[in-house]
Design brief:
about 120 residues; alpha+beta; 4 strands; about 35% helix; about 15% strand; disordered N terminus
Length: about 120
Protein backbone atom coordinates (compact mmCIF):
# COMPACT_ATOMS: atom_id res chain seq x y z
CA UNK A 1 0.00 0.00 0.00
CA UNK A 2 1.09 3.52 -0.62
CA UNK A 3 2.39 5.39 2.41
CA UNK A 4 0.69 8.55 3.56
CA UNK A 5 2.82 11.43 4.78
CA UNK A 6 2.48 12.69 8.34
CA UNK A 7 5.52 14.97 8.15
CA UNK A 8 8.37 15.48 5.69
CA UNK A 9 10.53 12.88 7.44
CA UNK A 10 8.03 10.63 9.18
CA UNK A 11 5.37 8.75 7.28
CA UNK A 12 3.08 5.85 8.03
CA UNK A 13 2.17 2.86 5.94
CA UNK A 14 -1.42 1.77 6.34
CA UNK A 15 -1.72 -1.98 6.37
CA UNK A 16 -4.76 -4.12 5.64
CA UNK A 17 -5.37 -4.53 9.38
CA UNK A 18 -5.61 -0.74 9.75
CA UNK A 19 -2.38 -0.83 11.76
CA UNK A 20 0.09 1.93 11.06
CA UNK A 21 3.86 1.58 11.07
CA UNK A 22 5.94 4.73 11.01
CA UNK A 23 8.38 5.33 8.16
CA UNK A 24 11.33 7.13 9.69
CA UNK A 25 14.28 8.63 7.84
CA UNK A 26 17.67 8.10 9.44
CA UNK A 27 19.32 10.79 7.33
CA UNK A 28 18.71 13.56 9.91
CA UNK A 29 20.86 11.61 12.36
CA UNK A 30 23.94 12.47 10.29
CA UNK A 31 23.98 15.79 12.14
CA UNK A 32 23.11 14.84 15.73
CA UNK A 33 23.02 18.49 16.86
CA UNK A 34 20.26 19.51 14.44
CA UNK A 35 16.63 19.83 15.51
CA UNK A 36 15.79 17.38 12.69
CA UNK A 37 17.98 14.76 14.37
CA UNK A 38 16.16 15.30 17.64
CA UNK A 39 12.83 14.95 15.83
CA UNK A 40 13.98 11.70 14.20
CA UNK A 41 15.19 10.40 17.57
CA UNK A 42 11.82 11.17 19.15
CA UNK A 43 10.05 9.44 16.25
CA UNK A 44 12.22 6.33 16.71
CA UNK A 45 11.55 6.23 20.43
CA UNK A 46 7.82 6.72 19.91
CA UNK A 47 7.68 3.90 17.35
CA UNK A 48 9.49 1.49 19.65
CA UNK A 49 7.26 2.44 22.59
CA UNK A 50 3.98 2.16 20.69
CA UNK A 51 3.98 -0.51 17.99
CA UNK A 52 7.50 -1.83 18.53
CA UNK A 53 8.03 -1.78 14.77
CA UNK A 54 8.93 0.76 12.10
CA UNK A 55 10.17 1.12 8.57
CA UNK A 56 13.56 2.81 8.19
CA UNK A 57 14.24 4.98 5.16
CA UNK A 58 17.31 6.85 3.93
CA UNK A 59 19.61 4.55 5.88
CA UNK A 60 22.16 3.85 3.14
CA UNK A 61 24.21 6.91 4.13
CA UNK A 62 24.51 5.48 7.68
CA UNK A 63 24.52 1.74 7.00
CA UNK A 64 26.59 0.57 4.04
CA UNK A 65 24.83 -1.92 1.71
CA UNK A 66 27.64 -4.40 2.44
CA UNK A 67 26.61 -4.40 6.14
CA UNK A 68 22.97 -5.03 5.17
CA UNK A 69 24.14 -7.94 3.01
CA UNK A 70 26.18 -9.34 5.93
CA UNK A 71 23.12 -9.25 8.21
CA UNK A 72 21.03 -11.15 5.66
CA UNK A 73 23.85 -13.68 5.23
CA UNK A 74 24.09 -14.16 9.00
CA UNK A 75 20.33 -14.65 9.19
CA UNK A 76 20.39 -17.25 6.39
CA UNK A 77 23.29 -19.01 8.13
CA UNK A 78 21.42 -19.16 11.45
CA UNK A 79 18.18 -20.45 9.95
CA UNK A 80 20.04 -23.12 7.94
CA UNK A 81 21.38 -24.66 11.17
CA UNK A 82 19.93 -27.90 12.54
CA UNK A 83 16.81 -27.47 14.68
CA UNK A 84 18.53 -28.45 17.97
CA UNK A 85 21.07 -25.63 17.52
CA UNK A 86 18.31 -23.09 16.92
CA UNK A 87 16.35 -24.44 19.88
CA UNK A 88 19.41 -23.90 22.10
CA UNK A 89 18.80 -20.14 21.88
CA UNK A 90 15.01 -20.33 22.17
CA UNK A 91 12.96 -18.08 24.41
CA UNK A 92 12.33 -20.03 27.57
CA UNK A 93 9.87 -17.85 29.45
CA UNK A 94 6.77 -15.90 28.43
CA UNK A 95 8.51 -12.65 29.36
CA UNK A 96 11.57 -13.27 27.16
CA UNK A 97 11.87 -10.65 24.46
CA UNK A 98 14.84 -12.20 22.68
CA UNK A 99 15.58 -15.59 21.28
CA UNK A 100 14.48 -18.09 18.69
CA UNK A 101 10.82 -19.01 18.22
CA UNK A 102 10.21 -22.31 16.45
CA UNK A 103 7.67 -22.22 13.62
CA UNK A 104 4.18 -22.52 15.06
CA UNK A 105 5.16 -21.53 18.60
CA UNK A 106 3.60 -18.07 18.39
CA UNK A 107 0.07 -18.97 17.41
CA UNK A 108 -2.82 -16.70 18.07
CA UNK A 109 -6.26 -18.06 18.74
CA UNK A 110 -8.59 -17.36 15.89
CA UNK A 111 -11.80 -15.48 16.66
CA UNK A 112 -14.87 -17.71 16.85
CA UNK A 113 -16.09 -16.54 13.44
CA UNK A 114 -12.80 -17.56 11.81
CA UNK A 115 -12.89 -20.97 13.54
CA UNK A 116 -16.42 -21.51 12.25
CA UNK A 117 -15.41 -20.50 8.71
CA UNK A 118 -12.38 -22.82 8.80
CA UNK A 119 -14.59 -25.79 9.69
CA UNK A 120 -16.97 -25.27 6.76
Amino acid sequence: MAPSATSPRTMTAKLESKAQLPLISLEPLLDPTSPKAQEASRALLSAFRTSGFLYLTDYSSLIPPSDVDKVFQASAHFFSRPQPQKDSVACTTPTANRGYHRIGREKKKLPAIANKAAKT
